[in-house]
Amino acid sequence: MQFNRWTRRGSAGLVVGTVAATVLGLAAPALAAAGPVSTHPASGTPQLAPTGSTEQVRQLVQCGGIMYAVGSFTSIKQGSTTFSRHNAFSFSATAPYKITSWNPDVNGTVNTVAFNGTGCHNAYLGGRFSSVHGGSARNIVEVSTSTSKINYTFAKSANGQVETMVVAHGHLLTGGYFTSVNGSGNRYMVSLSPTTGKDDGFVHLNISGNYVSGQATRGFNQQLSHSTNFDLVEGVFTSVGGQHRQQIFMLNLTGTSAAVTAWTSPEFNGACVNGESFYVKAASWSPDDGSVYIATTGFHPLGGPTGATPRTGLCDAAAAFPASHSAATSGGSTTPWTVTPQGPARSARPAWPGSRRPAAPSCGTRPGPAASARTTCWSPALACGSPVTMPSAPASAAASAGTRASASCPTTSPA
Fold first, then answer.
1. Residue 368 falls inside a structural domain
2. Per-residue confidence band for 20, with pLDDT thresholds at 50, 70 and 90
3. Upstream peptide bond of 96 is cis (omega within 30 degrees of 0)
4. Is there a domain that residue 115 lies in?
5. For 210-223, b where at least 16 C-beta lie within 10 A, e where not — what string?
6. Rounded to two decimals, what is the model's pTM?
7. Which residue in 53, 171, 193, 367 has its CB near the most CB atoms, within 10 A?
8. What three-state secondary structure class fits 328?
């Protein structure tokens, strides 16, 4: 399930992208939308207040009847009232969407918020900060959702920025730039006890490598399957669990320790422009966990065309892969069927540094011996407006992607 990522730049108003969001305590079928999401926000929805600087909601998570938003901001506006909230706030999930008193007052960017199952009494926060509610906390912390105070029984020190956290099977799976968290030597991804914050021994991946010299290795984002038995992880690395992986890997969480699965594709090794060598920044699961969807940045293939011409690779695209290991890696199935969703695709995190955006959106038809079975609509600016459904795409997965059938992709820039 997805919600909007809100960004306000100066007084220019809200710029809307997407952000992966978690809804706790709901069975998978309840996550399916009954129809298209409205293009207009519900009346009374909280907004980022204009401050003259860039502000952003990084993640939006529901626990019980409350929505929790974290990011980089200083004030929230609802109607004629402005609330002082530094990088974390919450509001009712139902009308009139009242902003709560929850105010951890974090002194730096909060990238992620997580909860332990359906228990909503405490929230785990990860990001780049040193103070929470007046107390010392280094990049990771657990706080009360009623008093906003730090829970001091949970250890709270990571030596690098925390990017992503999610609880599964009693483990707080945590990724980021760190090489040590609460005394653990597991780099870039670690499993912590939700009670103590200490390494519980469930994850030992020995993550290493990068794509461009000087680029930081990291765990960046993750998405649990609806069954909670598998976890997709995006980031910067070339080796995970002793296996070659770039940009994304899948963990099996059903054993006594997390294991890297055989799921992968050579498509993830393709190069985009140097400045965006890490471009698989978001993923999600189909309702039946049978397909994996990714959303990429990348602008255009390294050394490749930028206009309305055929192209290869996953640069600036929305794509779907079978979730089964063999189908994603063997025979002629290494190439995904790819779709352009209704409306612009966006990654779950900021896609470009600052406010830079590729210009001149255009589309093309992907060449290849099986092009008729895997027609592809590529959108360098992630703004191509002609969604397609591939002939070889499973009907259920295509429906999950919110697409409609079309004979082919447009070959010229949209008006």
1. yes
2. very low
3. yes
4. no
5. bbeeeeebbbbbbb
6. 0.76
7. 171
8. helix
